[in-house]
Amino acid sequence: TSANSRTVESLIKVNAMSRFGPRNALLAIYQNVLSRSASEAQKRSMGQLGIFGGSSNDIQKASSTPLPSNIDSVTTAQKLKWERDLLGIYFSSHPLQDFVEDFEKKNIPLMSGAGLVDGKEATFAALISNVKRISTKKGDPMAFVSLEDIKGNLDAVLFPRDYKKFQTAIDEGDTVIVSGKCNTRNGELSFIINNLVNISQNGIKSIDDVAGRASDSSTKKGSSAIIVISPDADTNDLSQFRDLLLENPGDLFVILDIKRGGVSKKFKVKKGVSYGFLEDVAKNLPMVQKVEYS
Length: 294
Hints:
By secondary structure, the chain is α+β, with helices and mostly antiparallel strands. It has helices at about 5-15, 25-45, 55-65, 75-85, 100-105, 160-165, 200, 210, 235-245, 275-280, and strands spanning about 120-135, 140-150, 155-160, 175-185, 190-200, 225-230, 250-260, 265-270, 290-294. The protein has a 5-stranded mixed barrel with strand order 1-2-3-5-4. Strand 4 and strand 5 form a beta hairpin. It is elongated, with a radius of gyration of 28 Å. The protein starts with a helix and ends with a strand. Residues about 210-220 have low confidence and may be disordered.
């Protein structure tokens, strides 16, 4: 019987072929072995391996591929990733489990224990399960990040300003500590990341960097801002924009400057707005001509 590449790879990863050698060594050569086997089978079917069906020493040499000796052993993180890829879940354990004791010593909760509430700032540990990188209409890169821990999942976002700082630290499968603010939109809780430390990349000692790398998102250029709105913005645009401002609370006093028929009308937003939201989102909207701080 024949086996395709995906099947052989899966059998190696679940350790069903351990009699042939270590998993990482087998993964390094199996593609070459399958390619040679397919070539031999094709030659045999075309009668190119001799009148006795190809039992010569040449066939034995072609079929024999030595295992590499300088391959690292399979890590626990690799095994867990393979579990997730093959089963869709972590089965034997969870990648965060190895760090729980260290997090507890530093009083850093896992995501599900962080008491996440709309408008509240939080710092917690989680696993990055998915990253979707996109660009804004102005071409600035940003990313949507899916976070998870042992008990749940949460959608998060890195807006352009913070994406520039952390774009190399958001690999799928990595354990991270994030800081930012909770945000609810359309009834769904999400998280705006403004600080991130990658424990998988930098080691558990980097947990001490969390406090030292606290975000400066609360630092404002003054205490108020005037947002100049394009005359082309219609009533629906303004209504949605107002809702966005209210969904991102902060300490910044905001006034909307709307021009209609050559006449400027100014409206005060009834709640304070997040400076980080104005910088990362509002300024990139087509309907916003400029933001003036004072």
